[in-house]
Amino acid sequence: MSKQQEPAVSVVPSVPLCAECAGPLSFDVSGSRFVCGNGQCAALGMDLPVWRVLKRAGLAVSAVVGLPRPVYRGMPVPWIAPVASDGRVWFRALDGERLARAQNEWLCQLCGEALPRRAWVFVTPGGLVLQAALHEGCKDIASGFCPHLSGPVTRAVPRPVTREEISADGRPLPVAGRSDPDFPQQWRIL
Ligand SMILES: [Zn+2]
Ligand SMILES: [Zn+2]
Question: Which of 111, 51, 107 is nearest to 82 (CA)?
Answer without folding.
Answer: 51
